[in-house]
Amino acid sequence: MNTHLLLVAIVQEQDLEPATKALQGMGASLTYLASAGGFLGRRNATLLIGLPVDKKDTALAAMHEACRQRVEYMTLPLEGSPMPMPAPVPVTVGGATVFALPVERFEQI
Q1: I need a labelling partner for 35 at 20 to 30 A (CA). Which of 16, 80, 81, 103 fits?
Q2: Domain total in the chain
Q3: Does pLDDT of 100 surpass 70?
Q4: How far, in Å, CA of 14 to CA of 99, rounded?
Q5: Residue 79: what pLDDT?
C-alpha cells in the first residue's frame, strides 16, 4: 500500500510564496522549479511536494487558498481591421494545476 504521494503543482509566480508558506506550515516537504506557461509565456513555478497520503486533502485546501485565479487583459489585433488596432481581451489566469502521483518508495536521507 502506498503511504506517500508526490504532488506536482504548477502555480503562477505571484502565488509561489503564499503556496510554499502554506505547505511548509503543514509540514510538507517541497522544492520548486522555475517554469514558463506555454499559452501566455508567463513565469510559473512547478512545485514538487512530498507528503503522506492522509495529508492530501489538507494540502489541496492550502493550495486552493493560496493560488487565486485572476483576470488579466491581453491586447490582440482585431481580425479584418485595415489597421492592426489592439483590442483588450480578458483572459483568466492563475490558480494551480495539481497532479497527484503515488510514490512506490520514499526515503528521507
Answers
A1: 103
A2: 1
A3: yes
A4: 20
A5: 64
Q: Which residues contact 54 (CB under 8 A, 6 or more apart)?
A: none
Q: Return all residues near 26 (Cβ < 8 A) that are at least 6 apart.
A: 55, 58, 59, 62
Task: Indicate whether this model's pTM tops 0.85.
Answer: no
62 in any annotated domain: yes
What pLDDT, on a 0 to 100 scale, did the predictor assign at position 87? 73
Residue 81 has pLDDT above 90, yes or no: no
Alpha carbon distance 50, 106 (integer Å) = 9
Per the DSSP assignment, residues forming a β-bridge with 10 are 46, 97
Q: Which one, of 96, 92, 94, 93, lies nearest residue 23 by Cα? A: 96
CATH number, domain at 36? 3.30.70.120
Q: Which of 94, 47, 46 is nearest to 67 (CA)?
A: 94
Residue 32, domain extent: 4-77+84-102
> What backbone torsions phi and psi does residue 95 show, to the nearest 5 degrees?
75, -160
| Mean pLDDT across 19-34 | 91
Question: Would you mind telling me the total number of residues written for the chain in this entry?
Answer: 109
Across the range 33-52, mean pLDDT stands at 84
